[in-house]
Specification:
The chain is α/β, with parallel strands linked by helices and 439 residues long. 47% of the residues lie in helices and 8% in strands. An eight-stranded parallel beta sheet has the order 1-2-3-4-5-6-7-8. β5, α11 and β6 form a beta-alpha-beta unit. α3 packs across α15, α9 crosses α10 and α14 crosses α15. The longest helix is centred in the last third of the chain and has 25 residues. The termini are far apart. The protein binds zinc ion. Zinc ion binds next to loops.
């Protein structure tokens, strides 16, 4: 009896010690200052990025279209001067055209000197151990020991006459021909000069491409389908998809409904194959660029029927960009054991003061399912992949330190637990997905 009351007392006192508070204490700044240098020392795995030079067409399988840029993404962002100073020792305090020329020349000079070590050196400067290169094709100037390929799988969904698809809006006029080009590159890779005569042949071609890309080193397949159509996928029968293929593979324009039905089947085929081949599925799940990106048609919650379908329980899904601005809903999708979230893009659209709140809520819910990414991209000569790497890394590490400092100060977690969560988010959670293929 005595012993049980002692245990009872210990539990009660432990509980009262761990009682969390709704406000951080006055120690929060101090905790932040203590955590940040430790967090900066954690070698990161960048789960989503597009490294490459601005003149390299293989950086993405689509192209940037005109559209409104959020404040932080504009060329007037003074943080870009800080990036240039940190990365290149930029001697000026503005990005005037003549000063920007210094930057462009400096980078060109280093590129000539360093060759294929150029981008590895950027990773070194930012303490990124290894990073994803989500690109149409890999570049010979990216060292395969530091950069792992994630290819684009969308184009398999657009094999027919795409006139109607491209005519939907000016963004599609840019995107759809690039999908056609990507599909032709896969066909070329697999030795096809035309679409297979029957549907079984087409599915075999799709699967073979995945297998061959995996042999070339790809660790995952990526969808940016939200840019091209709704992310609500129905569940057609193989007979329905086969019938549409037989009618349109050699010509003719399917109705929008027929095209979507066919695509829904192909998407599910790719997801199924992702399970069979242990080739995780990355899906763009947040707001996107362009004037016609449809926020409600691409809401991350549209994908819940796919993510929670027991037929795909062996497929790992990574929700790229974590569904922003539906990040509050998104974290609950990570309740499914095979679903992960990535924070790339969100950490650049938002400033660290607000990104901290997103991260905090996620850390408080499923901290073992969230992963770090930069979404670096060569926007132009001055704002290159290099500077966007820097912005993504700085934003993520500072917001992470701030979120964890609040959680410690509010009595939610201990400091050792906080550092463990930091390792998980910056490195361990993502690396654990790929079964020894990355480190
Ligand atoms: Zn991206």
């Amino acid at each position: 009896m005595k012993q049980s009351s002692l245990i009872c007392f210990l539990i009660l006192s432990a509980t009262s010690f761990a009682q969390s508070r709704p406000f951080p204490g006055p120690d929060v700044q101090q905790i932040y200052q203590r955590l940040l240098p430790q967090i900066e020392k954690i070698p990161a795995f960048d789960h989503h990025a597009h490294p490459g030079f601005a003149d390299d067409p293989d950086v993405d399988a689509m192209a940037a279209t005109p559209g409104s840029e959020a404040l932080r993404e504009r060329s007037t962002n003074p943080e870009l001067v800080a990036a240039a100073k940190a990365l290149w020792g930029y001697p000026y305090n503005d990005l005037s055209p003549e000063h920007t020329r210094w930057l462009v020349e400096k980078k060109a000079e280093l590129k000539r000197q360093q060759g294929s070590a150029y981008f590895s050196n950027i990773l070194d400067k930012l303490n990124i151990e290894q990073g994803v290169a989500n690109r149409a094709m890999m570049a010979d100037y990216l060292d395969p020991r530091r950069f792992v390929w994630v290819f684009f799988a969308d184009s398999f969904m657009w094999p027919f006459d795409n006139q109607r698809e491209a005519a939907r809006n000016p963004d599609q006029q840019v995107y759809i021909p690039l999908q056609e080009k990507m599909l032709h590159r896969w066909m070329q890779q697999e030795g096809l000069t035309r679409l297979p005569a029957n549907f079984a042949g087409y599915l075999a071609f799709v699967s073979r491409t995945l297998e061959d890309n995996q042999k070339k080193g790809a660790i995952a397949q990526k969808f940016e389908v939200a840019y091209f159509r709704t992310t609500k996928f129905s569940d057609p029968t193989p007979e329905q998809a086969e019938d549409i293929y037989q009618r349109f593979a050699s010509g003719g324009i399917p109705s929008e409904r027929e095209y979507r039905t066919f695509q829904d089947y192909i998407f599910r085929h790719l997801v199924r194959e992702g399970g069979r081949l242990h080739l995780p599925v990355h899906i763009h799940s947040a707001v996107g660029i362009g004037d016609y990106f449809n926020l409600s048609e691409s809401n991350i919650m549209n994908l819940e029927n796919i993510l929670r379908d027991p037929r795909y329980s062996s497929t790992i899904f990574v929700m790229i960009h974590g569904g922003y601005p539906y990040d509050r809903q998104a974290i609950w999708l990570a309740a499914a054991k095979n679903v992960y979230l990535d924070t790339s893009e969100t950490e650049i659209l938002l400033y660290p003061s607000e990104f901290k709140n997103v991260l905090k809520q996620w850390l408080e819910t499923f901290p073992d399912k969230i992963t770090f990414g930069t979404d670096c991209f060569p926007y132009n000569e001055a704002l290159g992949a290099e500077e966007s790497y820097w912005l993504g890394v700085q934003s993520s590490r500072t917001a992470l330190a701030a979120a964890l400092a609040e959680m410690i100060s509010e009595g939610e977690i201990t400091e050792p637990q906080a550092l463990q969560l930091a390792h998980g988010y910056l490195h361990d959670n993502a690396v654990g997905i790929y079964q020894g293929k990355v480190h």
